[in-house]
Amino acid sequence: MAPAVAQQEALLGKAYCYPNPVGAGAAAHLRFALRETALVELIIFDALGAHIERHRMGEMDGGESEIS
């Protein structure tokens, strides 16, 4: 599936995960900023690049958000 927007038009302003690295059994927190309202999908990979999970978060407003 192709991304909804081209790379040069990305809606994601900034993103970071903490703590990094995330220990076994610990919660990860993802903070990010969207330039405008958008449909958000979170895809999680392990340190070796293997796909772990996919979460469809639905429509989120522009601005800063955090997912735990």
Write a concise keyword list for the protein shown above:
68 residues, mainly beta, three-stranded antiparallel beta sheet, two-stranded antiparallel ribbon, 5 strands, 53% strand
Please give a structural write-up:
The chain is an all-beta fold and 68 residues long. The chain has a three-stranded antiparallel beta sheet, with no helix packed on it. The chain has a two-stranded antiparallel sheet with strand order 3-4. The two termini are 26 Å apart. The relative contact order is 0.25. Helix content is 0%, strand content 53%. The model has no long low-confidence stretch (mean pLDDT 82). The protein is globular and about 35 Å long.
